[in-house]
Structures are given as C-alpha cells and as structure tokens.
Amino acid sequence: MKIIPPTSLSATSDLQFGSVKSGPASGAVSVQDSGARDASGGVTLLSAGEATAATISIADDGRAAYDLDTPKQMAIGPMTVVPRLHQTSGTRGKIIKVEASLRVPPNTPAAAYYGAFPIMAVFN
Fold first, then answer.
1. Is the pLDDT reported for residue 57 higher than 80?
2. What digits encode the pLDDT tens for the residues 79-115?
3. Which residue of 18, 73, 82, 110 lies most exposed, with the fewest beta carbons within 10 A?
4. Is the pTM higher than 0.70?
5. How far is CA 77 from the centre of its chain?
6. Which is nearest to 16 in space by CA: 95, 109, 102?
7. Residue 62 CB: number of other CB atoms within 10 A?
8. Which pLDDT does position 44 carry in this prediction?
9. pLDDT of 59
10. For the chain, give me the number of helices (H) and strands (E)?
11. pLDDT band at residue 46 using 50, 70 and 90 as cut-offs
12. Of the candidates 90, 97, 107, 95, the residue with the CA atom closest to the CA atom of residue 36
C-alpha cells in the first residue's frame, strides 16, 4: 500500500455574471473562461458589475489520477446556471476555469442573486 499526499481544490475567484437586465422574453448571459460575456434573447448586458469565470486551483503531488465534474445545471432563484469546466483532468498545480451560462426567465425581478455549486473530484 502507498499513501499519497492529499489533493486540495480551492476557489481563487468566483463566477460572476455582472449586471444584466431581464426583458419580456427569456434569454441568457454567458461568461467564457476569459471573463468575456455575451447575452441573447431578452437579456441586456449592463456596464455595471464585473464578469469573471470561476477559478479553481488544484494542489497535488502529481501522482493522483482524477477527473473533475460539476452538476449539469443548478437553480439560482428563478434562473438556471449551466456550468462548464474549461479543463477537466488533474495534473500538478493545475488551474481550472469554470465558465457558465445563466438562463434568465422573462421579467426576472431585479435583485442580487447568489449561489454555490460543487466541484466533484473522482479519483481513478
């Protein structure tokens, strides 16, 4: 038997969609791994607020083999978040970006919406 040091994952930046306005039609806002964002349908991007992909830092000794995954979608208030990992296999000192799309129903009330999503590591 061989015991290897633990692998740790830590969030170094949160997923932020920035400020958007919901209109009479449903729409979506997407944040890419670069932090660039775009809107479609009844969503209008506003200049206020910073958009960023989430950043996850992985620390391990390079001997563990694992895959990372997120839920396929999650509810945040009346909206649905669909996260995507930009890189999904582990190596020593890797940085993972989580980009996402936010589905916004028509006339979503103005508010600050917050949520969390898990990153799951499956060791091979």
1. yes
2. 999 999 877 555 556 888 899 999 999 999 999 898 8
3. 110
4. yes
5. 16
6. 102
7. 12
8. 94
9. 80
10. 0, 11
11. very high
12. 97
Spatial CA neighbour of 28 closest among 14, 45, 16, 13: 45
Q: How many C-alpha atoms does 46 have within 13 Å on its Cβ side?
A: 9
Structure tokens belonging to residue 18: 């920035």
E-assigned strand segments in 3-94 = 8-13, 16-17, 20-31, 37-45, 51-52, 54-59, 66-69, 74-76, 79-85
Contact 22, 108 (CB under 8 A): yes
Residue with tokens 């979503």: 108
Residue 80's pLDDT is what? 94
DSSP calls for 56-75 = EEEE--S---EEEE--S-EE
The whole-angstrom separation of Cα 107 and Cα 78 is 10
Q: In terms of C-beta density within 10 A (0-12 exposed, 13-18 middle, 19 or more buried), how is residue 66 classed?
A: middle
